[in-house]
């Protein structure tokens, strides 16, 4: 186990240097001010890293989380934790943020939050320079499009979420610039890079001493999607022969890190998949997420304007199309069949349709089946901004939450947020199992 940690810490150091090199390459390419020199000087000291591997932090039962313990590196200066937002839509970003809230809370660090990127712009940027992104991904990992988004295609996260709610869980610092500018502005600080892919394993909060053998009973299916396989190329090579799943312990690995900024790089935060050792801690952490993820008062106001106009009662569907691999291949019959199973028409003919599909003809079978359709673009003028669709998506989500019956899209994190907010989730032992990025380690054991 100690050897594995040594290996992981060494991997992080290499990853830090490696990431710095990637950014150097990009900043040169795009004419963004170079911050490579400062980054390299501030990279973690290898002896710091190696001395940490000798420490065996032992945790007593029930010691955590009622009050997050002050780690002994906590000083009067602010310590930060932040994350790489994934290339993807708002709800992919939300999942990365939810996991980052958990890590920041466990490590008692100020969470740096980032703007939400225009999904339409991300798609068109990717298409325009596909060969370049693919080349970068092959050599240097993922999520390049978000980092290169310009400020005008970004929405401050405080417009999307009620940051006051997150602040009741962790301290928050809001970044409103694009990611390269953020990294430049924080480059005088000392950074600690963390990279982990769900092709390799997952995170636990901590494993109390003497309980290591528990991990042998864990069922793990590696995510072999090209995105997960390409994430963290350095760690993937170094951990090629390590036993899978690679289980990384948040507290043991990160609590004593002295760097100013812990940076969850690549998809580390998006795919963190944190499992808690104690069930009661998993329950508490799920509560942290539920109580912090509230859309902003401004979004509520606009959504309630739509709700006031809609006939009552009404039902809703979310139809995910455009770039979604799984859902875009479904025909209208997928939704119509599921709606019939729930007897939608017995409740109401009024059907609110949340969708990224621009072609209204696609919905003709729904009208033919007897539904009266309502779309959010009928209620609001386009603002002409690239993130129009994303902002309307927030109203769509809230309206769907308040519908009598709802059918969403398969494997869509947009639908997931709606199901979770409607409390239509799988529950076991009082814990939410679906539409929730974190859980209890006990539910991952083969016998459970
Ligand atoms: N307005 C609107 N936009 C949507 C809808 N569904 C998807 N989108 C757009 O597509 C993106 C979806 O990405 P994301 O939220 O990550 O969900 P996922 O890709 O389905 O898991 C959003 O940010 C929106 O831009 C919808 O029902 N209404
Ligand atoms: Mg997405």
From TrEMBL:
It catalyses: L-seryl-[protein] + GDP-beta-L-fucose = 3-O-(alpha-L-fucosyl)-L-seryl-[protein] + GDP + H(+); L-threonyl-[protein] + GDP-beta-L-fucose = 3-O-(alpha-L-fucosyl)-L-threonyl-[protein] + GDP + H(+). Pathway: Protein modification; protein glycosylation. Its main location: endoplasmic reticulum. It is an enzyme of class 2 (transferase). Keywords: Carbohydrate metabolism, Endoplasmic reticulum, Fucose metabolism, Transferase. It holds the Pfam family O-FucT. It is found in: Endoplasmic reticulum. Its EC number is 2.4.1.221. Belongs to the glycosyltransferase 68 family. This is GDP-fucose protein O-fucosyltransferase 2. It comes from Porites lobata.
